[in-house]
Amino acid sequence: MHYLVIGCTLLALVNVSDNLAKTQLKVFQKPRFYGITTSKNVIISCSVPGTSTSVVVEWFKSPAYKQPMQPVSGSDRIIFVPKSRKSHAAIKIMDTVTEDSGIYICKANGTLGPGTELQVHRRGNLTLAIHRSKMKDAIIFIQGFLLVILICVPLFHFYKLEKKEETIYEEPEDDHTYEGLEIEHCGLYEDIPALSQGTEAVWSMESPDQE
C-alpha cells in the first residue's frame, strides 16, 4: 500500500514538473528582422535554452503580427534545418522572392516564439531611377514656369490698361475768359463771363513807320 502511494506521488510530481517546464519554456528567434532584396538566402534560427527534454519545432507564417498563421511547408527553396549546437531548429529560405515577405514564427513544444519579420524587396533599376529623377526635375521646372506666367500675365494686362487710360486722357483747352476785357468794364467778378461772350480779342501790331 505504501509503495502504491509513493508511486502515485512520484507520478504526480513528474506531471507537475512537466507542466511547469512547459509554462516556463522560452523560445528565442534570431534574427528578429530581415530586410533583403530578391534572389538572396536567409536563415532563421529557433532555440529553447535551459531545457533538457526533446524539442519539437514547427514553423508558421503570418502576413503581419497578430494575424492568422499558416503552417510553412517545405520545398526546394524552403528547407528545415535540424538541431545544431546553436539552435534547436532553423528554417532556410533560398532564392528569395517578394512573396516570401511576412512574419515567421517558431513553435517549440507548443510555445510560440516572438517571430521574425522578413521583408523582400525587388532590386532597383539604376537606369529607371535616373529617368524618374529627370522626369521629376522636368515637372518641377514646368510648374515653376507656369507659376511665373500666372503672375506676369495679370501684371502685364494691368500695365496695358494704365497706358490706355493715359492715352485717352486729353489736357483741357486754355480758358481765355479774361482775354480782351478791360478792367473798368467789370464791376463784379460775376460779370466777367457775361462780358467775355461778346468780346473778341483784338490783336494789333504797330508798324515802325507809325511812330
Give the structure's gist in a few sentences.
The chain has helices spanning 2-23, 126-168, 191-197, and strands spanning 28-30, 33-37, 42-47, 57-62, 70-71, 78-81, 89-93, 102-108, 111-112, 116-121.
Could you explain how this protein is built, in words?
Residues 1-16 form the signal peptide. Keywords: Immunoglobulin domain, Membrane, Receptor, Signal, Transmembrane, Transmembrane helix. The protein is α+β, with helices and mostly antiparallel strands. Among the domains are: 24-121, Immunoglobulin-like (Sandwich); 126-169. The chain has helices spanning 2-23, 126-168, 191-197, and strands spanning 28-30, 33-37, 42-47, 57-62, 70-71, 78-81, 89-93, 102-108, 111-112, 116-121. The model has no long low-confidence stretch (mean pLDDT 77).
Beta fraction = 15-25%
- What is the N-to-C succession of helices and strands? HEEEEEEEEEEHH
User: Which CATH class of one domain applies here?
Assistant: Mainly Beta
Shape: rod-shaped
Helix content: 25-40%
Q: What is the count of DSSP helices, taking H or I runs of 4+ residues?
A: 3
Tell me the CATH superfamily of one domain.
Answer: Immunoglobulins
- The CATH topology annotation of one domain reads as Immunoglobulin-like
End-to-end CA span: 178 Å
